[in-house]
Design goal:
By secondary structure, the chain is α+β, with helices and mostly antiparallel strands. The chain contains two helices and two strands.
């Protein structure tokens, strides 16, 4: 959403692990998973558990 809706460029992705038993948050750098996400979305569309967007990709994001 940061890229498609707000025009930001995501250069790094980090998973933050926070737990009361940890002395400090643990940060794990992650790779981009664009192809994997596209595959999951396509699979969900084919299974009928999702539907294609009715608006173009550059439509503004609006919270009702």
């Amino acid at each position: 959403m940061l890229e498609s809706e707000y025009g930001y460029t995501v250069s790094n992705m980090v998973l933050a692990v926070c737990h009361p038993e940890l002395q400090a948050p643990r940060l794990i750098e992650l790779p981009r998973l664009d192809r994997e996400m596209a595959s999951i979305v396509q699979y969900e569309l084919e299974c009928g558990r999702a539907r294609a967007a009715s608006l173009p990709i550059d439509a503004p994001f609006v919270v009702p």
